[in-house]
Amino acid sequence: MLADGNYLSVCAYDCPDSCGMVATCREGQLVELEGRNDNPYTRGFICHKGRRWVRDLRGQDRLMSPLARRNGKFVPIGWDEALDMTAQAIRSATLRHGHQSFLFYEGSGNLLMGNSVQRLLPLMLGGGTMATGSLCGSEGKVGLARSYGTIGRDKPLAALDSKSILLWGRNPAENSVHFLAILHDARRTGARLGTIDVRATPTTAASDSAWVVRPGSDLTLALYLCHEAINLRGEPEAPHEGYDVFSQACLLVSAEDAQEATGLSAAALHALVGFALDQPPLSIWTGYGLQRTRWGADLIHIIDTLGFLLGNHGILGGGVWFDQGDDDLLPDDFATVPGAPTRFVLRPSLGASLLEADPPIEAAMFVRGNPASQCPDAGKVLQFLKQCPFSVCLDWHMSATARACTLVLPTTVFLERGNDYVMSYFHDLLQKTNKAAEPPDGVRDELDTVREVALRLGLPDRFTTERTRLVDVENDPRLTPAGPGMWRLKDAPRIQNTFHFPSVVPDVAVQTGMLHFITVHVRDYINGIDPGQARARVLPPVVSVSTQLAHERCLIEGQKVTLRNTLGSLDVRIHLDKSIAAQTVVLPQGVEGVNLLVTPGLTPNGNSCINDSWVLLEPVQQ
Length: 622
Ligand SMILES: Nc1nc2c(c(=O)[nH]1)N[C@H]1C(S)=C(S)[C@@H](COP(=O)(O)OP(=O)(O)OC[C@H]3O[C@@H](n4cnc5c(=O)[nH]c(N)nc54)[C@H](O)[C@@H]3O)O[C@H]1N2
Ligand SMILES: Nc1nc2c(c(=O)[nH]1)N[C@H]1C(S)=C(S)[C@@H](COP(=O)(O)OP(=O)(O)OC[C@H]3O[C@@H](n4cnc5c(=O)[nH]c(N)nc54)[C@H](O)[C@@H]3O)O[C@H]1N2
Ligand code: SF4
Ligand SMILES: [Mo]
Hints:
Elements: E1 5-10, E2 20-26, E3 29-35, H1 48-51, H2 53-56, E4 67-70, E5 73-76, H3 79-97, E6 102-106, H4 120-124, E7 129-132, H5 138-148, E8 164-168, H6 172-175, H7 177-188, E9 192-197, H8 202-205, E10 209-212, H9 218-233, E11 240-241, H10 243-251, H11 255-262, H12 266-278, E12 282-286, H13 296-309, E13 319-321, E14 343-346, H14 350-356, E15 363-367, H15 371-374, H16 378-387, E16 390-395, H17 400-404, E17 407-410, E18 421-423, E19 429-432, H18 446-456, H19 462-469, E20 479-483, E21 486-489, E22 499-500, E23 515-520, H20 535-538, E24 542-546, H21 547-553, E25 560-564, E26 569-577, E27 584-588, E28 613-619
Parallel strand pairs: 6-15, 7-14, 8-9, 8-12, 9-10, 11-22, 12-13, 15-16, 16-17, 23-27, 24-26
Antiparallel strand pairs: 1-2, 2-3, 4-5, 4-17, 18-19, 19-21, 20-21, 23-28, 24-27, 25-26, 25-28
Helix pairs in contact: 3-18, 5-13, 9-10, 9-11, 9-13, 14-16
The structure holds ligand MGD (2 copies), iron/sulfur cluster (SF4) and molybdenum atom.
């Protein structure tokens, strides 16, 4: 058994902060979890979601045994039977229709780098079927990379050198509390903080100024701000190309256009222009909410262009941020099988892609993902799961996807696995995990589970060797030691050489006569809701509607209504919110049922455009 003591670990939730943790273990069990003091981002504190692991590792929602669906009900079975069943199902599917009839689906529910070893299973079988296209932030990264050809990796502590900080469609008070702490420090030393959002949030409350705009109006707003920047400063001196075409397009966008699109008053718009122009250096932090649209990449590129036109690129405390590259710390050939002809299905329209797949999917494995809750048009994902002869979900609790599968396999979580690593998508620290608790009996590390399945299928054991190669990441020449089990990755500046102006400015006006359906990440849980988390607070789903809309429709606080569109319907309760634009409704993402209404649309880059969704709001049918 693990000796009593303190162990260093790192939170592997899909959260930008990637906190360094000190875990206290007694008699094999986790008894306390704190933030590391020597991690300059964590600064000795972790959020309540992280701390909850002390309860949840042994909590009532922890799965403790494989569960197989028999006559519509889950019954506990032994591991040998569960692994045999999995191998057998994969074997018969692939014998019938070839290796592509095995789906290996990965979500982002856990950021341990070692989990990539699992991909060897579909790859060694021939390639299998896997998912491509992002539900999260790839669209914004595409946009950011257009300016200089790279996403780079900069220090978020740069905000401490800013005099003006603009958060644009980003809500760190709920979704990245350690960034909020940095922002508070910046304000203490004289920076002003402004936020652009489609509603009031804890972040707008913590800001010196906030502008609430209509969803989808940011592109017009950004073009207008570029127009003002050109009026003030003219053509930049720094090397660039494509200025003429872009400047002509944005000079056509007037203050009136921006007001009409955003719903901002003339005074509010004027104040925003002042905020962007008056007190450099300005850093702009774009968020995920902003880019969940068909034109997300263009939007982030145009906001980056604003930063360039204002002379804020490449100066201390200035610049435009979105998300960072994953830095490829794993060796190029890690867990790969050259030439394996994997078939890819689209994550943004997963259900339809799986239902239409030819050859059909007859065995499906889900790891670290909860597509029955998190993918757009989730109704089709459920429909697929209903008809797929065999589906297995590896998770630590009964997620919506697990509940729809034919087999569920309980896995350990990061606190129960040592010698793995997490690289942040926000800051510059790589951190190593130590095993800090014994898993409950009946729970297995998923790398062992996948390996066992592979061995039963007669595949060679590359799993063990790849796992031992993980340690190579520590020796990457770009890393410098930053404390026990912690390394700093050198900056890889994004801003280099020639700036490329956007060559196309899309026309985004959309009038559907329906309500704009916006889903947002919330404080109490990460992505798909876990049963033990916050359920009482968010179920049944609560939709925020504007007081203006409520007034027009005679709706009252707490009233039950149905949201409906061609994809599905959902009963919800109303919460009145005077900050929201009239034709907008806002729901927390992650609540089961929400994605029944979300569009499975694709951006031109193959990513999802979750916030391009519209619904009707109707009285509940009795
Ligand atoms: N409508 C709407 N939908 C959205 C979004 C939105 O804003 N609106 N946001 C999107 C975004 S940004 C994201 S990133 C995606 C996330 O989508 P997913 O990655 O599919 O969902 P998660 O809830 O992050 O995680 C999936 C599961 O991983 C499990 N898990 C955690 N740790 C481990 C582990 O160590 N091993 C295994 N096997 N499982 C583990 C969790 O318990 C959870 O059930 O959702 C997207 N969906
Ligand atoms: N507590 C918590 N933390 C999390 C997560 C979580 O679920 N819970 N999820 C993690 C993940 S996977 C991600 S991707 C990040 C997401 O982190 P954020 O980007 O901070 O979160 P979002 O809620 O996606 O969007 C941010 C804001 O954009 C606004 N917004 C939506 N549409 C528009 C628009 O058209 N224009 C403008 N200007 N604003 C708009 C929303 O109202 C929201 O307040 O958070 C991570 N951290
Ligand atoms: S969820 Fe985020 S803020 Fe909370 S402990 Fe984990 S990394 Fe830190
Ligand atoms: Mo995400």
